[in-house]
Amino acid sequence: MKRFKSPAEVKVGVVGYGGAFNMGRHHLNEMKRAGMTPAAVAEIDPERLKVATTDFPGIQTFASLPEMLKKSDVNLMAIITPHNTHAKLALQAINAGRHIVCEKPFAITTAECDAMIAAAKKKGVVVSTYHNRHWDGTILGAMKQVQAGLIGEVFRVEAHMGGYNLPREWWRSSKSISGGIMYDWGVHLLEYSLQILDSEIDEVSGFAKNGFWAPQTKWKNDTNEDEGFATVRFKNGKWLTLCISSLESNPKRSFVEVTGTKGSLIMDWAFNEVITHDGTTVISTKYKNPDAEGWKLYQNIADHLVKGEKLIIPGEWARRPIHILDLACRSAKLGKALKAKYR
Q: Per residue in 192-250, pLDDT tens?
């Protein structure tokens, strides 16, 4: 792979500058913070292209990815589009010799992940995913607490998020576009969990409740599941559960609970709580979480492109949560557990 002499030599662009969360602006600013040079934006909405030129005066704008690939010399592109377009757009850019970062989730299916990873290896370019939450304060704190042995040997992680609510009328509530209810926040919770349970995946069982909210939504037969649930069995005997629900009338107190032989760890945003017992007394201790360091993702990519430093979120790592979600969706349809192909 070609090395750059400095981060400033890395010209960066984004594919997608939609209004939701202003992610296009965010990605370009994070790339700029890492020393790289914002150079281009591709977006199908001309009004959003106007916003991009206001945010980044002088930046090149294009109405499509093919036009950007043909007319710009951007080296690294962030794909910020609906989930079901990630693989198609990324493959176009990879085959044109450009480095790629996909917004999470990496893709919808394992096959799409495999195709991007294989193409990137063939072309000698980077393919990664924007797992900036790899450096959230809650998981940074949890890893310190687990590694310090505060809860003993970890053997179970329960990840969950939800509420009782009608899905919003946007593409993220469409099963064919988004991948399903577990693909948005679920991929983050799995990424946290896989840092804690670093073992080979054995099998995945998936469960789904469908049809309650669908009649009231714009997508009807293509609406996300009302609830998605997955159980992951690891080869070392540990296990993980993930539940994302829009039928949760009794929301859980936090989003990740880690159980060990000496106690439990309750992950939360500002403070993690460690609960232990000495046989007679339950002891609860709260630990202030460190500040989030999500900026490290693009800094690591810049350092990889310039200095050859190890890539922290390669395609193979990003494929792990997608493989679990893919297997869970297929398992829910088949009504049986499915063996994992990748660790």
A: 999 999 899 999 999 999 999 999 999 999 999 999 999 999 999 999 999 999 999 99
Asked whether 8 and 36 are in contact (CB, 8 A), the reply is yes
Q: What are phi and psi of 20, to 5 degrees?
A: -60, 115
Q: What percent of the chain has pLDDT over 70?
A: 100
Identity of residue 205: S
CATH 3.40.50.410 fits 7-130, yes or no: no
The pLDDT value recorded for residue 116 is: 98
Pairing status of strand 338-339 against strand 37-42: unpaired
Residue of 55, 325, 31, 38 whose CA lies nearest to 206: 325
pTM of the model: 0.97
Q: What is the mean pLDDT of residues 256-274?
A: 97
Sheet holding 37-42, edge to edge: 60-62, 37-42, 11-15, 76-79, 99-102, 127-129
Count CA atoms closer than 13 A to 230's CA, side-chain side.
Answer: 34
Measured from the Cβ of residue 101, the count of other Cβ atoms closer than 10 Å reads 28
Q: The tokens of 52 are what? A: 């991009």
Contact between 14 and 42 (Cβ < 8 Å): yes
Sign of the CA dihedral running 262, 263, 265, 271? negative
pLDDT attached to residue 278: 83
Mean pLDDT, to the nearest integer, of 178-188? 98
Give the number of other CB atoms < 10 A from CB of residue 185: 18
Bridge partners (DSSP) listed for residue 201: 234
| Residue reference for tokens 């202030």 | 288
CA distance 278 to 211: 47
The domain ranges of the chain are 7-130, 134-291+323-339
Pick the CATH number of 134-291+323-339 from 3.40.50.300, 3.40.50.280, 3.30.360.10, 3.90.25.10: 3.30.360.10
Please identify which residue in the block is written with the tokens 């799409």.
Answer: 112
